[in-house]
Every structure is written in C-alpha cells, then in structure tokens.
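Dear H.,

Thanks for agreeing to be a second pair of eyes. The structure we're designing against is below in token form, covering all 366 positions.
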C-alpha cells in the first residue's frame, strides 16, 4: 500500500510504515502541506495494529537517501511574514504539534539522518526512538543566521547536549558530523551510507514479534560509534558556559592565539545580535522544561519574531538577506551585540496568550 502526495511518499511494507520526504529540489524543506501530511499519516499508523514501527528518510535529486531535510520552507516564511499571511501562524502551531507527536510516539520511529539534517529536519528526527547518522551527515540548527532561534524543540534537545555544547550549536549554527552528533546526544548510532538501503529494505520483509523486536533489530544493525575526530568539548565549555552573550564574545575575541576562537567570534558578529541574547536565554530556560513546555515557550518566541516590532522582524530581514535578495548583508536592529537592551530580548519570553488559550495548550508530556 502506497500513499503519495507530491512531497511525501508513505507506504506499509510488511509490519513497518515507511515515509520518504520527496521534495529533493528544496532539500526536502517542510511546507505546511508536508507537515499536515506527516501528522495525519503518523496519527493513522499510531492506532494501526498492523504497523509495528515507522521509518523515515529523505531523498535527493538522484534518488532516495542522500539528504534528510534542510528545515522549514524559509521562502514561505518570508512571504507570509511580509504580507501577514495567517498560514504563518498555522505553520508553526502545526509543525510544533508534529514535533511533540514524534517525541511521544508510542511505536518505534526510526530516523535515517543522512546528508543535510537541519532546522525542521531536526524537529522530525530528534524525537525518534533511534536516530541513525552516516559519514555524509551534516547536522546543524543554523537559525541565528536568519534572525530566528533553534525552534522545533531545539531548546529541549540542544539543552540536553553535554556541557555547553547546546549553547555553542544554538548561537553559532555550526555544522557537525556523525561522530559529534553521537557524542553530543543528537544521534544514537552510525551506519555507513551505502548500507542504509539494505537496512531499510530488511525492515519491510522481516517478520517481527512486536514493536520491541523492530527496535532491537535496528539497534543491532547499527554501530554505537562513528568514525571521525571529536570537537574539543572542554574548549567549547570554557567559552559557552559563560553567563552572558557579552562575556562569550569578549572571551572569544580576547583569545587571539586560537583560530577557533577568532573564527567563532567572527561568526557570532554576523548573527542577529538580538537573537543571540534570545537564544542563550532559550537554551538555559529549556534545561528545566519538558518537551511540551519547551514547545509552548518556542511558540511564544516565534510569534514575537514576526510581530513583536511591526515592520522590524529580524527573521524576515535575515531570510531576505540569505535567500531572497541574497546580498548576505542583513540589517540587524540593534546592529551590535553591545547595543541590545535587556527589555527587548526579555520580551520574547512573555507569552502573548493566556495559558488556557495558548495554541499548544493541549500538549502534554506523559
């Protein structure tokens, strides 16, 4: 049985439900339609006794695998945010609801995180029961580049990284590979890219006693360690555990002997100064939150990204500079880290809704 929208292919083979993200020209960036299709399919399989587990992968221009998902459809976000399209609100509410469902899915949900896995792609994979990376994996939460913050539960899963690795990944948007993904608790296992097809196909022909047997089979078919050097967590902690954005940038810029410190400082100077303050607070608040409360906080934050200052959205401006006009010269406001007022970034954590009317009020963590 195969069900296909233009961008999502879903089928049941044997006892497993298979989902292929099928928008390769956009590196499988999630549209509102894709979010809705994914949610509806996962709900249907959740209560289907014939489906013991779900597996999800991406596709590339040459075929399947290759890239998982580059994130949300930022061109849509720019258009909707610029014109007041109400589907902007729908997109984030429904995407975060999908993220929550995946974190609490009652059956094994196996994510084949090959190639680019960024932004919204992390949102539909971090809640998986088994997160598989390959030597081609390029993982990041690069939202500060576009004046956004690592949403889709990013506060929750980045804050669970060891030490201050979450702060580093969230503030800089730096990309990591398979070895770091496993070390930072953002992946569970490694599988050579060339072996993904065999495991995917085996899931569709094997006979399993129950859902636990599917999970055990996948775990036994993958490796707990990945090849490659690891980032120096002590070096990351020394800087990114500091108490404020100002302290972090000062420490980096003062370390003139470290090429890493200098390049990291230069990268942070290119990000939205306002959003750096918002993101640091997000990660640190999220350490004390469950998934549902984190997603509610992020839903508040993303509303403010587009509407806190009418006509002055850092996110709309960041997307314009990166993906629309492509001048790579965003006009951030404020323009410098040193000029961000405390009341401006703190406003992102004030909910625009009373608790009972919050768009994600129904989300609960069991």
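And this is the sequence the design step returned. I haven't edited it by hand at all.
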């Amino acid at each position: 049985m195969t069900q296909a929208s233009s961008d999502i292919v879903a089928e049941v083979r044997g006892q497993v439900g298979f989902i292929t993200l099928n928008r390769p020209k956009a590196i499988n960036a999630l549209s509102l339609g894709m979010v809705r299709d994914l949610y509806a399919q996962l709900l249907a399989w959740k209560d289907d006794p014939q489906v013991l587990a779900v597996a999800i992968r991406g596709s590339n221009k040459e075929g399947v695998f290759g890239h998982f998902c580059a994130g949300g459809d930022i061109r849509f976000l720019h258009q909707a945010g610029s014109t007041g399209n109400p589907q902007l609100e729908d997109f984030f509410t429904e995407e975060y609801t999908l993220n929550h469902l995946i974190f609490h899915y009652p059956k094994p949900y196996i994510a084949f995180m090959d190639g680019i896995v960024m932004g919204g792609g992390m949102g539909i994979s971090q809640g998986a029961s088994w997160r598989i990376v390959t030597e081609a994996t390029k993982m990041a939460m690069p939202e500060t580049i576009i004046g956004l913050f690592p949403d889709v539960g990013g506060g929750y899963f980045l804050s669970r990284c060891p030490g201050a690795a979450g702060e580093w990944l969230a503030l800089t948007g730096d990309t990591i590979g398979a070895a770091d993904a496993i070390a930072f608790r953002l992946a569970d296992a490694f599988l050579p890219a060339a072996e993904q097809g065999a495991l995917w196909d085996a899931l569709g022909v094997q006979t399993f006693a129950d859902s636990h047997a599917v999970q055990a089979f996948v775990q036994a078919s993958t490796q707990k360690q990945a090849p490659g050097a690891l980032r120096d967590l002590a070096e990351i902690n020394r800087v990114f555990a500091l108490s404020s954005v100002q302290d972090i940038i000062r420490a980096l810029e003062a370390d003139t002997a470290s090429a890493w410190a200098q390049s990291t400082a230069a990268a942070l100077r290119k990000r939205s100064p306002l959003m750096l303050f918002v993101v640091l607070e997000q990660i640190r608040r999220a350490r004390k939150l469950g998934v549902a409360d984190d997603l509610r906080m992020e839903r508040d934050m993303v509303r403010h990204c587009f509407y806190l200052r009418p006509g002055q959205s850092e996110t709309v401006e960041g997307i314009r500079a990166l993906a629309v006009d492509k001048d790579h010269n965003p006009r951030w406001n404020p323009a410098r880290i040193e000029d961000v007022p405390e009341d401006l970034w703190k406003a992102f954590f004030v909910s625009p809704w009373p608790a009972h009317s919050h768009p994600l009020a129904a989300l609960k963590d069991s």
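Two observations from my side: The radius of gyration is 20 Å. The chain has 16 helices and eleven strands.

Warmly,
E.
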